[in-house]
Amino acid sequence: MLGALTMARLLGKMKEVRASDLHIKVGSPPVLRVAAVLHKIETPALTGDDTKQLLSAIIPPHLAEPLETRGGIDFSHTEAEGERFRCSIFHAGGGLHAAIRRVNPQIPSFEDLHLPPIYKKLAHNVHEGLIVVCGVTGSGKSSTLAAIIDHINTGTAANIITIEDPVEYLFLPKQGIVSQREVGLDVGDFATALRAAVRQDPDVIMIGEMRDKETMLAGLMAAETGHLVFVTLHTADTMHSFARILEFFPSHEHDFIRSSMAVGLKAVMAQRLLPCIKPEVRVVPATEVLLNTPIVADRIREGGDEDMPAIIASSQSEGMHSFTDSLVRLIQTEYVDLRVAEQYAPNRDALVSRIRGVELPADKLVSRVKGNR
Q1: How far is CA 30 from CA 56, 166, 279, 316, 356, in A?
Q2: What is the CA radius of gyration of the chain?
Q3: At 200, is the secondary structure helix, strand, or coil?
Q4: C-alpha 340: how far from its chain's center?
Q5: Judging by DSSP bridges, how do beta strands 265-275 and 129-134 pair with one another?
Q6: Cβ atoms 158, 176 nearer than 8 A
Q7: Residue ranges per domain, the chain?
Q8: Bridge partners of 284?
C-alpha cells in the first residue's frame, strides 16, 4: 500500500533535497540520486501495483499504448509549479520501472557547469561542422548542450533547430530563434526530423542523441554543407567516439565515413561527473577535448584512433586536454580530492605522477576511462 506516497510528493522531494534522479523499481523503495550517490527513501519496498499506480499519474495518454507495444517510453513531464522532468518508463521483471531526471528550470551557463574555457570558445568561434559531446549515462551531456545552445542563442542571430527525445530545457527567443522538435510528438524519428531540418534554413542543428546510421549520415552531411551540428554520443572518451560512429555503418562504408569525419568534424568533447568536495557544488565535470587539427584529420582518415591520446598530450597549446589534465586541475583547485580522482582516472599511475610533478611518456597515457574498460 502506498499510503501518503504519491508521484507529486516524490517529485517534490527531488527538488527539496536537490536530487538529480529518481528511480522507481518493483521490490525496492524509491531511490534518489543526490550528489552522485544513491539514497533509498525510508518507505516499504514497492509492489508491481504500487509502481503502476505511481507512474500512471505522469504517463501521457498518447504514450500508454507505445509503452505496452515497445516496452518503454521517454517523455518530459511538467508539474503544476513549472518543475520539469525527463522520464524514462519501461517494463522490467514483470512490472513498471522508471528513471526520472529533474531538469533545472534555468538553462545553465558554462560557469554554472564548471566547464573549461575551450567549451565557450568553440561555441563562440565555430560556425559550421560537427561537434560531438560524449560521455556515459549521467555525465551531463544534455546540460552541456543546453549551455552551448543558449550561448549561441544569446549572442548570435542564428536559426537554431533542436531535435530531442524528449525536449528538456526550453529556450526562449533571444538574438536567435529556436525551434525545438520532440521525437514521438512533433516528428517520428531523428533521421526524418534531421532531413527536414536542413530544408528549414538552419544555422545550427542540435541532435539529442545519435542512435542509427541514417541520423549519423544526415548529421555528417549537414555539417559538410555549411551547418553547425551538435550531437551526443554514448562513449566514455574521445578516442573511442570514432569506433562508435563507425559501428552505425557496414565495414565497406568505413573509409567513406572516416573521410567525411576528417573533413566535417570540428571537435570531440568527453566528460564525466565527479562528486565535488566544495559544499556549495554537488558535482563537477572531468573533461577531455580533441580538436580536429591537420594531424588529427590525418589520423582519422587513416584509422589511427589509438594515436589520439598522444596527440592530445602534445597539443595543449592548441586547446586540447586529456582527462588526466582535467583531473589534475580539479585537484589543484580543490574541487575534487585525489582519492575520488583516482577512481575516475583513465590511468591512475599517470594521474599520481602528474600530482607529484613527474610526467609519464605519451605512449603510457593510452587507456580507457573507468566504467568503459
Answers
A1: 16, 23, 25, 45, 43
A2: 21
A3: coil
A4: 21
A5: parallel
A6: yes
A7: 7-103, 110-364
A8: 274
**Separation of alpha carbons 25 and 71, rounded Å:** 15
CA 97 to chain centre: 22
Cβ burial 58-93 (10 Å sphere, 16+ → b, else e): bbeeebeeebeeeeebbbbbeeeeebbbbbebeeee
Q: Which CATH architecture has domain 7-103?
A: 2-Layer Sandwich (3.30)
Rounded Cα distance, 180 and 186, in Å: 9
Locate all alpha helices (DSSP H) within the chain, ordered by sequence.
7-17, 48-56, 64-70, 110-113, 117-125, 141-155, 190-197, 213-224, 241-246, 254-264, 294-302, 308-313, 323-332, 338-344, 348-355
Give per-residue pLDDT as tens, 237-274.
999 999 999 999 999 999 999 999 999 999 999 999 99
Of 13, 47, 52, the residue nearest 33 (C-alpha): 13
Residue appearing with cell numbers 510528438: 185
Helices (H), 80-140: 110-113, 117-125
Q: What are the tens digits of pLDDT across the range 131-148?
A: 999 999 889 999 999 999
Q: Pick the closest to residue 27 from 9, 10, 43 (CA basis).
A: 43
The H or E element that residue 34 is part of is strand 31-34
Cβ proximity of 98 and 55 under 8 Å: yes
**Cβ–Cβ < 8 Å for 13, 2:** no
Cα dihedral 53, 57, 58, 64 sign:
positive
The total number of residues written for the chain in this structure: 373
Type of residue found at 35:
A
Give which of 224, 194, 214 is closest to 206, Cα–Cα: 194
Neighbouring residues of 88: CB distance < 8 A, sequence distance ≥ 6: 72, 73, 74, 98, 99, 100
For residue 360, the SS3 value is: coil
Fold of 110-364: Rossmann fold (3.40.50)
Task: Please return the burial class of 349, using the count of CB atoms within 10 Å of its CB with bins 0-12, 13-18 and 19+.
Answer: middle
pLDDT digits (tens, 9 = 90+) for 49-108: 999 999 999 999 989 999 999 999 999 999 878 888 999 999 998 899 999 999 888 899
CA distance 369 to 373: 7
